[in-house]
Structures are given as C-alpha cells and as structure tokens.
Amino acid sequence: MADYASSIRKATLEAGRLHRDLAVQASVIRGAGRVDVFGSIAKLDVPLLFTKLDGLLGVYLREPSPGILITTQRPRNQQRFTAAHELGHHYLGHQPSLDDEDMLRRAPFQARKGDNPQEVEAEAFAAAYLLPRWLVDYHCERQDWTDEDLTDPVNIYQLALRVGTSYEATVWTLHRYDVFDRKAASALAGVQVKKIKQKILRGYEPESYRGDVWLLTDRDADMRIEGGPQDLLVVRLPEHSGSGYLWRVQTIDGEALAVVADGREPLDADGVGGPTLRQITAAARDRKSGELRLAEMRPWQPTKPLNVFKVSYSLEGAEAQGWFKDQRQQHRQRLEAA
Q1: Do the beta carbons of residue 126 and residue 108 sit within 8 Å?
Q2: What radius of gyration do the chain's Cα atoms show?
Q3: Beta bridge partners of 233
Q4: How does pLDDT run across 319-332, given as a tens digit for each residue?
Q5: Residue 72: its pLDDT value, please?
Q6: Phi and psi of 238, rounded to 5°?
Q7: Which residues neighbour 321 within 8 Å (Cβ) at sequence distance 6 or greater?
C-alpha cells in the first residue's frame, strides 16, 4: 500500500498548491465559507458543462482539449465532489476518465487493494480541495467547536452543509485530520443522516427528508446559505421573553420560504423569568435567493430591537443543464466567432 500512500500524499499536496495559486483561502473567508470548485475550474480555463449523464457522475476529457462534464441528476454537494474529482484528474495530469457511482462508494484517503491509483489520487485531491484543514479550523472558530464537539453527528452534518460536502466524506476527512480515530469514524459514518435531521427538527415532521436541515444560531449571523429547494432552515436563538422581548420574522420572501414550526423551551429548567430558547423552522418553497431577517423586540417598542439576526440564502440547489454560468458568455462569443 506504499504506492497508495504516496498517491494520497501527492494529491493532498497538489490540492494545497492549487489553493495557493488561485488564492482560494482569501476568497472563501470573504465569501460563503466554502471552496468554489466550479469557479476554480473556470479559472483554469477548462470548459465545464452540466448535462444528463446516464450511469455516470462525471467525465474528464483530454483530447482535443481538456473539458469536464458533470451530471445534472445529483444534488449539489455530489456535483461539487464530482467536479473536484474531475479537477483532480486534470490538475494531476491524468488520463481521460469516466466516473460512476464507485467514486462515491470509496471513502477518501482509504485506498483498497486493487483500486486504480489514478482514482485514489483524484479522490484524495477532491477531499483535500473541498475540505482542507484550514477550512475546518475556520468553521470551528466561528462556531466555537472543539475537536470533542466534532464527535457529535449534528455538528459534523452542519460542518458538511457549510463546506458543501457530504456527511460521510466529511467524517472520513476529519479522521484524516486526526480529529477522531478510525473506529470512531466508522461508527460516525454509519449514523443515518435522517436521524440527525430528526434530532434537529425536534418533533417537526416534514413531508420528505430529501432536503437538508440547516441549524442556525447566533454564530451564523450574516452568513450566506447555499442550499436547495427542499431545505429547512431551523433558527435557534436565546429569547429574553421575561423582559418582554420576542423574536419576530421581519423579512421573508413568502414564495421562497414559509415558517412551518415555532416553539420555545427554557434555557434554565430551574430559572423563572429567564431567557428561553426560541426555535423557528422555515421550509424552502422554490429555487430563490433572498434574506431571512429576525428582530428581538418588545411588541410595544417595535423600532427598538434588542437584537437582530439575518442570513442571506440561495436555494438554487443543483446546477441545471448548460455551461457553467461564468463561462456561458465566453462560449457564446467563441461560437459566434467560429
């Protein structure tokens, strides 16, 4: 397995090199807190097309010129991982590749006997490119998470949503960074994501669990959410109801989001008149972008909020058929000139 270890090390180093060359870290911190892998491919001037691919998730082509195809039939986080995998093939100088479901069944950084070294490299590159250690540290600092907190499936799932990777891939990448051992990683990877969603929703039953469930606290103020048209946003904030302050939704696009559950529970079971914990759940209705804004105010003093909480959101979900949006104009001009 020495060759596989060497392949993984090489792929990880090259992912870091490309981060530096494209100044990815600075753009992530200024932006949505996740690596823009589609934008990275565009910066390398590699054509990127989203289309229906029967039986395949992605394709990397070399001749007559490099190009990448990504399926439109998978959720956005799988499109992102597939794109990072194909980017790995390109950046590492690999041969053309047709990639199917096997790509998702392989755990990153876990080579098996008989695995194709080229695929091992691309898999390791994808995981390291989408979730480098510095990005884990960035979100841990923002959320005040310790390594111990990252043994909680809820926190791992929330980290996965923020960085745009799958829950299982995030588990194995955290294992790679020695956050927990292999035995713990196997146990965490076996946790059903539906169970995690149910724990966050605290009794609310959606019609379907296909969408993701974002748990938003005051640590997420002003963040940008890149979700899908079936997602649920659960806003959980302390409320000073004993002093008359109540959270109210101030801004919500009724065609994009709808409040579907609203509840409170005491922060201190023995306290009387102390803060409570307010949980407001909003369900996505359409592929739209906008802002969700709440204010904690007294009903008789609506112009003097004690606190304001807001996030921006894009619920576009998976990329649709066509060229990557940043390349459309470029390809249109080339076709017109041909």
Answers
A1: yes
A2: 22
A3: 214, 282
A4: 999 999 888 877 77
A5: 96
A6: -65, 140
A7: 50, 51, 52, 72
Residue 104 amino acid letter: L
d(CA 104, CA 259): 34
pTM assigned to the model:
0.90
Rounded Cα–Cα distance for residues 20 and 206 (Å): 42
Residues contacting residue 176 through CB under 8 Å, at least 6 positions apart: 108, 109, 127
Place of tokens 């054509």: 47
Is residue 255 within 8 Å of residue 313, measured between CB atoms?
A: no
Q: How far apart are CA 261 and CA 165, in angstroms?
A: 27
Residue 204 phi/psi, 5-degree rounding, is: -70, 130
- 162 — alpha (psi -120 to 50), left (phi > 0) or beta? alpha
Q: Alpha carbon 243 to chain centroid distance? A: 37
CA–CA distance, 132 with 24 (Å, rounded to integer): 11
Encode pLDDT of 274-307 as tens digits.
789 999 999 998 888 999 999 999 999 988 999 9
256: its two tokens: 């994009």
Whether the Cβ atoms of residue 284 and residue 211 lie closer than 8 Å to each other: yes
Q: How far apart are CA 151 and CA 158, in angstroms?
A: 12
Give residues with Cβ within 8 angstroms of 131, minimum separation 6: 35, 163, 165, 169, 170, 173
